[in-house]
Specification:
The structure is a homooctamer of 225-residue chains. Chain A has 225 residues and is α/β, with parallel strands linked by helices. Chain A contains 7 helices and 9 strands; from the N terminus they run E-H-E-H-E-E-E-H-E-H-E-H-E-H-E-H. In chain A, the strands form 2 sheets. Chain A has a 5-stranded parallel sheet, with helices on both faces. A 4-stranded mixed sheet of chain A has the order 1-2-4-3, with helices on both faces. In chain A, helix 5 links the parallel strand 7 and strand 8. In chain A, helix 1 packs across helix 2 and helix 3 packs parallel to helix 7. The radius of gyration of chain A is 19 Å and the shape is flat. At the A-B interface, strand 9 and helix 7 of A face strand 9 and helix 7 of B. The structure holds adenosine monophosphate (AMP) (4 copies) and magnesium ion (8 copies). One adenosine monophosphate (AMP) sits at the interface of chains G and D.
């Protein structure tokens, strides 16, 4: 369904052959299949099975989309994706690919750390101008960025903690706890859960897009009467 | 602002007199003041300061709203609040009061535990019929309910873990972790963070309501041309 | 003894040669030897030592049974095994093999996640019709399934948390805590402890089978008098 | 139902008046009401509401049973309750009262610590002679007792960790972990979860009693043919 | 000594009479005594023992200074104290009193939360103009403020986590971990350790003041030659 | 010194060449060198450097002793080493080698798990007959054994938790906590700290041996007078 | 028995009347009864029951000894007790009382913190001169003292972590972990386990005293031949 | 800037080519580039890209400095680096290289463990004679050393916990907690955060050096008037 959540194949602990098989069924049913957490081996076997031109591989997001040429549906939903550092990009990209497959236009603002707060403000202004329905903010280490973004925008912010950082609070733990303790209004997903963040943001953005359309249609209906 | 987040006074570690003073300023500025985590002493002193008829006390939510007669704004946003057991009601009610003060209509489905799954399905159908923009699901102990609700509705679900349960995983910990691990698409707030859950849900619901209105208005504009 | 717990060889941190040696003694004594947590190397060496036809290897359960042709004893006990997702199958299968070696008939209901709750109800009805003495429910991530099953069946349910899920509460931690906090009546074993779950379920199922037989025999005795 | 789990009122965070009201409904429906985790105030108000002779108060178990004179049903199930020290008795007694209300005969072996292992063996022999269907073993501090009991009896053992002990691993944590790590076959419930332990044991014991009866009846039926 | 750390009496777990006795010795030796973590009872007894005019009580810092009229030494060191919210003030004030007793001038910037980032920048500019040798930044909940301050000033920043916030990461835990994970250059002290933060800051500030003086003196010496 | 603690070379994170070099110095000074946590590579290079006959390699303990033919000193101290399962032997053996190098006679009782409590009692009787000055008890998983041994012997027992067991409380954690919570009188060392356990036991045993000798000598002295 | 461990009554969660009753039995059997963790109420009731002159109350150790005039046995064992700060004294004193009741002479070195390392060295020299068989070292916060003492003395050191310190690692946690990680040879007991520490030290000291006596006696025997 | 914090390239999760590229930009801008956490592959590729003579590789610190011949700036700041054992040297060296690149002279005191406290005192005297502005003290396992050093010197001490030690509190956890609980005045950085420790120390040392210079200059200015 348009606003519902996408089905995806989590390749992580499946053999390449199993993934190919499940993907075939899904493409047959839905025209497109999203596969997440793929390893290079998965990609190799998928390429052979489906042909390179039927396959969109995002190496940073570790995702593959298989399709029969049919483009992804477009819902009119707009999702912003913001990330703090290089290490946050895989999670951010996973969120972006998922939101895109769910029909959303995605707008990214990468590499605006807390260190570069002067770069953040203008970047956020550009993002706000696109009127995103929801914004995913990926951040590792001390996880400050979602708190700051949520204080500066109207759209609901989804905090996506990333498993960076060593020592106490490392591996995304400090980031997760800091987001749960945030003084701004934030909702969070689990560490590295780019899939959930992207799907949740798309769900919101798609509902907003649908409401806008409904508003227009209701008007027409009424006027038609 | 209409979709923005409400300012509230956290009474928890403030003296009754301090709360009265801050509330006075806020009422003067904004016509209404929301005070959360109030103790009976706070309520007593607030009643004396503002008069009982200027004061809405929700003893289960531990909130007080002070107003000068001006009603809360209405945005057209609709927020669902679902809870599993008696012990979850304070957090659920805190979320409800906040969403209401932020202009939303709130629809509650209380006391539908996992034990009573047969009661849950029809209750959720009624809730879905109200077309909520977002749904807060409060749950303690093993925190299953948000996962189940999110699998059955289209609206984004905010998991609100509640500090019930003794022993290992007690005090809301199992509930929080289970929501972070959920197989459904969920975003979560911290344990007992009814305020954040309500404000986040209202933010989404208000954006959806605003999109609908914008849809209607844009149509008019276009047609007007 | 018939209802007692099976002796098994935990291959995990033993050399293949040590495992062969212990297995030889056990087969000599008990006709059959159960070996758990075997690696492919263990299997290779065991095949050479005992001959492929004397050896039942379950690659998903990571178990090997060596026997001299003597079939496993049959007790009349019936054990149900339920699991939520693909990743839960190794633990579920380990439980199944152990229960089977302890003389029980096993009935499996795999791949009924919380997501697919509509598939769960009819599958559980079929399981209930087999009158299981005990049911092992394996579940990872948020570990909801045992709670739901226990609310729908009469037989005692053993919650078996599985080490799936990344981030906070990952590796089976959220699942374990959620089962300990369950609102349904549940007993649990440790994360990935398929062996213990299977042996515990068989112990119950075998006691029930023995009670039934005793009931019949007592009747005969009495009537014989 | 006979083998199903008992409904009980958890008094812990309810006002005495609420408890009285819920108990009234339950007695009307089911003749008996079990109330757990009662405070002295709860007891006082319950006495006034129902009359002292309608009320069985177990101060160590912190339970109250209200009844209209109807005795608890008897199922023929037998549950053993074993505990290590004085501090474990409240949890053990809570389990005992619950099993008893679920129709079981209960047999207790209290105050046999690991220190007094010489006292344990003969006590367990007496317990085994009663042929219990399941045994609850309550133990705090290092939680050794269930492991030892499970190694000496055939019946399934439910480990019930008790919140005793100070310092690292105190409050029942070491006991819970030790039971989860046990070398014997054990299933466990949460710390201080006497209610769950008792209900789980009764569920098993009642199934065994029912199987025995069914065995006798089936024989009769067959012979009747 | 001038740059060394101050001796203080931790009143926390001492009887009022013990505190009076130790304070008498200290005043006799050093003219002034600093007492921390005082309760109202401590203050009462101290007032009676030393007279109200010999006693400076800071109720928010929970400190008392006893003196014989001798003013605290002045070192020329300058310490900044920044805090985010009302709840952080006790820890911040404890740091301020300690730094002051160690001879430093203290400059405070309170109540500049992350929410109010627009208020923070001008406030920090004023603070920088005073040329502090070190800055203590107290912050609870998600502990963001020290990271931001350290990115904007030259002086070494001491992160002082404060035990605010409920739920996961509450009680100062998220704040501590976030500061340890900070992308800015920060050193931290333990949760609520205002005493250590103040003493550490003063140690740095006093060394800087001493270096300046030494610079002037060396010049004089050299020129004197 | 005779009762003092042995110097040893922890090979763990040193290159084979570094170990050889440090060992050379130590042998020159003390005639013997003890090297712990050696890998096969360390052993290879040590063999080449010192010659196979100068080297005692204990592959289970992962220790090497280098000597110039001089035998280890003999103190008369007696140390018992008890272990529960196969997986506990490396830690137990490390303790044994260290105690032996510190001059003690060592008496081992391996493979007496809690499961085999009937085997334990006679084995402990044999151990007691050797009059050990101290007993190291190595145990993993639920760590019960030291508690039981300490209840049955007079000598001080050193609990040595071993990093076995998977899931919650695995890796020696449950064992450590259970030993700290023990109802018997126990002192413990860290998980897998065979070196410390052996050295501590030897320290006690050597003091007892020395006291005995002193007793005899004092008597002589007195009588000589 | 002389070297065995003392029986004691843990008053903590027993009513004063229960304690009196158990104590009466113990005094009748053993002439003396040791009661630990007594509250002021316990003491009051014990005084009335036994008479003030039959009762030794140590308010800092929270212990009471009841006796019929019979003095505690003397074994010749010597136990040292060292503590760092005022807050460590209750645990240290509990250890001292227990060791004393077990027949040992006790030698205390209190109030030698790490801060006062210059005071520590001479104090330890005095302690060493008394030739203690074992030394209990109580330390809270960062728990350094046992490590340092163990590096300076020959006798086995028992680390006794004390529940002081706030924030991360507070309540004795850092102290316990630091002692488990110690570079010196140490064995530890649980946080605040003064009873265990004292009993363990006495066990060692008594074995040493007994060995000395045995040495003298053996000599006599031999000479007598 | 002179006192500000150095920019460095964290090679850890970057490809060698990415590192080369970023380094080129940095050298072009700032004459020198500091790269931390380099692997041997990084070094190989960097050598090829810049030429071996333009590259200072510190294999223990895992750092590389690239420069165009321009020497590092000299600020006059002096930083002491103290470490306890061999395993602490990588973290200590990382701190040293960073402080050096920030313009400081560095003075090292390595291998003075708590065991070798007699070696520590004279070594610290030598260090104090160099008048360091700040001292980094690296320590693993029980993390005692910073506490002791801070009690003996005037300069602010930065505790740098190192990820050594196995078992409970291993991997630097006990060290971190012990430093946070320290009785001396200490500030700490995260486990293995040599970079932060060095940069923080340099920040302090550079401020002190600058103050001295300012003192001299002010004098000149004043005299010039
Ligand atoms: N990267 C991901 N993280 C979390 N969940 C995912 C991810 N990719 C797919 N999923 C979801 O995980 C489930 C797949 O589980 P499985 O049946 O084990 O393949 C589906 O519900 C997917 O939508
Ligand atoms: N997969 C398993 N998980 C837990 N326990 C097992 C497993 N397989 C065998 N065991 C039990 O572990 C013990 C074997 O221990 P060991 O003496 O080390 O071989 C026996 O009591 C087995 O019944
Ligand atoms: N297996 C071991 N476990 C714990 N400590 C050890 C071990 N082997 C040697 N040691 C001690 O570790 C220290 C050696 O440290 P190092 O200077 O790094 O070689 C000495 O104090 C040894 O006595
Ligand atoms: N302060 C104490 N800490 C730990 N154990 C104690 C303490 N005092 C007494 N005990 C022991 O705890 C047991 C008493 O347990 P109980 O049967 O509950 O009275 C006996 O074995 C005592 O020797
Ligand atoms: Mg961040
Ligand atoms: Mg729930
Ligand atoms: Mg699940
Ligand atoms: Mg126990
Ligand atoms: Mg903050
Ligand atoms: Mg064990
Ligand atoms: Mg200490
Ligand atoms: Mg150290």
């Amino acid at each position: 369904s348009r606003t519902g959540v996408i089905e995806a194949i989590l390749a992580d602990c499946k053999s390449p052959d199993d993934v190919v098989e499940i993907a075939r069924v899904m493409v047959a049913e839905s025209k497109r299949a999203l596969i997440t957490r793929v390893s290079p081996q998965h990609v190799e076997v998928l390429k052979q099975a489906f042909g390179e031109d039927k396959l969109e591989w995002n190496s940073r997001a570790r995702t593959v989309v298989i399709h029969d040429g049919t483009p992804a549906p477009r819902t009119g939903g707009i999702v912003g994706i913001v990330s703090a550092g290089t290490a946050d990009i895989p999670a951010a990209e996973e969120a972006r690919v998922v939101a895109s497959e769910m029909g959303c236009e995605t707008v990214t603002v990468y590499d605006v750390g807390v260190a570069g707060i002067h770069r953040l403000i203008p970047a956020l202004h550009k993002l706000k101008a696109t009127k995103p329905g929801a914004i995913v903010v990926a951040a590792g280490r001390e996880g400050t960025l979602p708190t700051i973004v949520s204080g500066l925008v109207d759209a609901p912010v989804i905090g996506l903690p990333v498993s960076t950082g060593y020592g106490a609070g490392g591996g995304g733990k400090a980031a997760l706890l800091a987001m749960l303790q945030s003084c701004s209004t934030l909702a969070v997903v689990n560490i590295d859960a780019g899939f959930v963040a992207g799907a949740y943001a798309a769900r919101i953005a798609n509902m907003i897009a649908a409401a806008y359309t409904r508003g227009r249609e209701d008007r027409v209906e009424q006027e038609g009467k």
